[in-house]
């Protein structure tokens, strides 16, 4: 199985982790070929997660855009309120096949932690979720949900106390507990084979978009837009569209207006190695990873999935930046125009889609609405 | 003398090898020379100079906190080079760094500067075998030996390949875990792994690391067949203060006495692994 996307990816990890990554790759290769695995996964996605999700034509948001028709891929309607469940179920079933009784996960906004906690409960795992202290403070409702679902939430007090430090903590836990534990990573980041596996589990989003768009207007979207933190909902959206004539636009968090980097690693970063992967990073001259800034905890990550670095390098996908204030505006547009409270992460993509719509009269734009916004109510200024 | 040459020579003299780890810290650069001299006089055979990194995934709480503190002190690349330059006249220097601080524009572009400053070996904890292939010849072309790691659970054929391509010494990770912490479960028996590595690379010194903190843990490493130990967290815990000299000397002496602990093993008659000289 290839371990890079062009120049990007790889597995820059301590030798101690190599046997576990090899075991995971073997399990994945076997599971993928096993009709029993595929059937169980499809069944759980349908009856537990709530797939397929609708592709919704957003007429009033379209009017605001004054151009292309805007359609929303409603991943916010999934159980738990975000696309994260697609991957959590997939890896959960995989972990059970590997005979691991314990799941660990990192979480930023808390959505992946919630998805892992739900799967942990439903499949009978002991579940531990690492979460930065700063994220615990700004995403408190999700902390309560995880605890109610039976997961232990461990506050991470090192470094910037956000998502990247939660990943460091999870990697350390994994190193110490390899025989019993599966690290259920939440995005298309980390060492090979994680980006490939997570991308494959999320690709259900793009597969549905393609068949739904064909049914709705007889062809693929002209433009697909998704927000990019680590980039899993975007890879899931883009993958099945790579061979279509669809333009792909990933939207990174620019943070507060005027901030030099925000959390936009592809647009404002340079190549480097973080969390086992060669990819784009926000870093200083000496290779120290920078602290990021974004109102949206789920995008607040200084690196990005290596496949996005590759898609940017080949020009197959474009990446742009949306700032905090713009995302907030889009949040209110969607609330007032369509009666949908989007996650702040997804609001970045909505803003970019409306901006793009202006010059695309007659086209169809699909925006992946990766999650719902209930978790953000405390962060949104009234 | 390079790190590898110094280790081989000291082993020939019958020494149990001790390589302490010093993290670069802007507030300590002025004292590096005196500190490394102290380590040499106490019996250390080489020194590892650690470059702090913002995301040290292989490090336990002691070294991770030390790295974070160092970065808060403003430690930068100039401090790294100054530390290597100050240490090199006292002891052979191996530089320990995660991958990212060694990169410039995405490629390992820092090797010439490190070599010019006096380093002769490079230890990169997040550079597993598969990614190290390209780095080893590049490092060697700049006069740096790339030290490779073997760890519990690594299959024998991979151990052989890693041992053959490791330069300077072979770093034996003694247990599944991170630096400094005490093992949650008993360490796996790695003596078979050590024998496999030894057979593949008979002259290469093997140093055990992760969790080495006293004579007993050094003794356990000696029983596995290691030629010596690397010590980091235990030294960092002692610190670099004015009263650190005596505990530092005592720690190095205790570690050097590691093989003497073998008398207390359950199987004291077992012959130590024979090392071809």
Enumerate how many helices of chain A there are, as a single number. Answer: 15
- What is the domain total for the residues of chain B? 1
CATH H-level superfamily of chain B: Aldolase class I
CATH top level assignment of chain B: Alpha Beta
User: Which stretches of chain B are low in confidence, meaning pLDDT under 50 for 5 or more residues running?
Assistant: 265-272
The helical percent of chain B reads 25-40%
What integer value in Å does the Rg of chain A equal? Answer: 19 Å
Taken from the alpha-carbon principal axes, the silhouette of chain B is globular
Reading the helices and strands of chain B in chain order gives HEHEHHEHEHHEHEHEHEHH
Describe what this molecule looks like in 3D:
- The complex is a heterodimer of chains A (382) and B (277).
- In chain A, 43% of the residues lie in helices and 19% in strands.
- Chain A contains 15 helices and 14 strands.
- Chain A has helices at 18-33, 35-49, 59-65, 84-97, 111-123, 133-138, 140-148, 163-176, 194-202, 204-217, 232-238, 265-268, 306-314, 324-338, 344-357, and strands at 4-5, 8-9, 55-57, 69-74, 102-107, 126-132, 152-156, 181-183, 223-227, 247-255, 270-274, 277-281, 317-323, 364-369.
- In chain A, helix 4 (84-97) crosses helix 9.
- The longest helix of chain A is centred in the N-terminal third of the chain and has 16 residues, at 18-33.
- The model of chain A has no long low-confidence stretch (mean pLDDT 96).
- With 277 residues, chain B is α/β, with parallel strands linked by helices.
- Chain B has a single domain (3-261), classed as Aldolase class I (TIM Barrel, Alpha-Beta Barrel).
- Chain B is built from twelve helices and eight strands.
- In chain B, helix 8 links the parallel strand 5 (145-150) and strand 6.
- In chain B, helix 10 (215-224) runs parallel beside helix 12 (245-256).
- The two termini of chain B are 18 Å apart.
- In chain B, 55% of the residues are buried.
- Classes of the chains: A alpha/beta (382), B alpha/beta (277).
- At the A-B interface, helix 8 and strand 11 of A face helix 3, helix 6 and strand 5 of B.
């Amino acid at each position: 199985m290839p371990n890079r996307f062009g120049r990007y990816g790889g597995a820059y990890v301590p030798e101690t982790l190599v046997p576990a990554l090899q075991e995971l790759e073997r399990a994945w290769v076997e599971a993928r070929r096993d009709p029993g695995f595929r059937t169980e996964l499809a069944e759980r996605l349908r009856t537990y997660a709530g797939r397929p999700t609708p592709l919704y034509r957003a007429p009033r948001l379209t009017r605001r855009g004054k151009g292309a028709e805007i359609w929303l891929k409603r991943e916010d309607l999934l159980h738990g309120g975000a696309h994260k469940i697609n991957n959590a179920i997939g890896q959960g079933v995989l972990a059970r096949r590997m005979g691991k009784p314990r799941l660990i996960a990192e979480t930023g906004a808390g959505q992946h932690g919630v998805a892992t906690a739900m799967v942990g409960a439903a499949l009978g795992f002991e579940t531990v979720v690492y979460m930065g202290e700063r994220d615990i403070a700004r995403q408190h409702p999700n902390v309560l949900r995880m605890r109610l679902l039976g997961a232990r939430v461990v506050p991470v007090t090192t470094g910037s106390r956000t998502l990247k430090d939660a990943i460091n903590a999870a990697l350390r836990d994994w190193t110490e507990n390899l025989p019993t534990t599966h690290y259920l990573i939440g995005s298309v980041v980390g060492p090979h084979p994680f980006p490939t596996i997570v991308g494959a589990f999320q690709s259900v989003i793009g597969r549905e978009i393609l068949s739904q768009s064909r049914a709705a207007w007889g062809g693929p979207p002209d433009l697909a837009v998704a927000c990019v933190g680590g980039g899993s909902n975007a890879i899931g959206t883009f993958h099945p569209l790579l061979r279509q004539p669809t333009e792909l636009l990933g939207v990174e968090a620019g943070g507060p207006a005027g901030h030099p980097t925000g959390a936009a690693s592809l647009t404002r970063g340079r190549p480097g190695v973080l969390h086992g992967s060669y990819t784009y990073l926000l870093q200083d001259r000496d290779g120290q990873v920078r602290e990021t800034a974004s109102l949206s905890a789920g995008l607040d990550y200084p690196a990005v999935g290596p496949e996005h670095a590759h898609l940017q390098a080949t020009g197959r996908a474009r990446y742009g930046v949306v700032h905090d204030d713009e995302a907030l505006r889009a949040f209110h547009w969607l609330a007032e125009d369509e009666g949908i409270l989007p996650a702040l992460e997804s609001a970045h993509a909505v803003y970019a889609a409306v901006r793009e719509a202006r010059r695309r009269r007659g086209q169809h734009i699909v925006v992946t609405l990766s999650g719902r916004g209930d978790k953000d109510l405390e962060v949104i200024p009234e | 003398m390079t790190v590898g040459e110094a280790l081989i020579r000291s082993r020939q003299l019958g020494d149990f090898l001790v390589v302490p780890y010093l993290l670069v810290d802007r507030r300590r650069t002025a004292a590096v020379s005196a500190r490394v001299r102290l380590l040499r006089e106490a019996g250390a055979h080489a020194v590892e100079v650690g470059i702090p990194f913002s995301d040290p995934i292989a490090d336990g709480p002691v070294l991770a906190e030390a790295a974070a503190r160092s970065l808060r002190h403003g430690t930068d690349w100039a401090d790294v080079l100054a530390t290597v330059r100050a240490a090199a006249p006292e002891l052979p220097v191996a530089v320990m760094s995660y991958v990212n601080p060694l990169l410039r524009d995405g490629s390992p572009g820092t090797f010439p500067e490190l070599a010019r400053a006096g380093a002769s070996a490079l230890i990169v904890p997040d550079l597993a075998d598969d990614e190290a292939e390209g780095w080893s010849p590049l490092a060697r072309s700049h006069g740096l030996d790339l030290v490779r790691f073997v760890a519990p659970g690594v299959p024998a054929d991979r151990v052989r390949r890693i041992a053959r391509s490791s330069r300077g010494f072979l770093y034996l990770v003694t247990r599944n875990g991170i630096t400094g912490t005490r093992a949650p479960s008993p360490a796996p028996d790695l003596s078979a792994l050590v024998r496999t590595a030894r057979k593949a690379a008979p002259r290469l010194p093997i140093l055990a690391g992760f969790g080495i903190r006293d004579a007993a843990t050094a003794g356990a490493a000696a029983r596995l067949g290691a030629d010596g130990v690397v010590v980091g967290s235990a030294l960092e815990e002692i610190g670099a203060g004015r009263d650190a000299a005596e505990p530092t000397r005592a720690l190095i002496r205790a570690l050097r006495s590691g093989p003497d602990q073998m008398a207390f093993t359950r199987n004291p008659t077992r012959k130590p692994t024979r090392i071809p000289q």
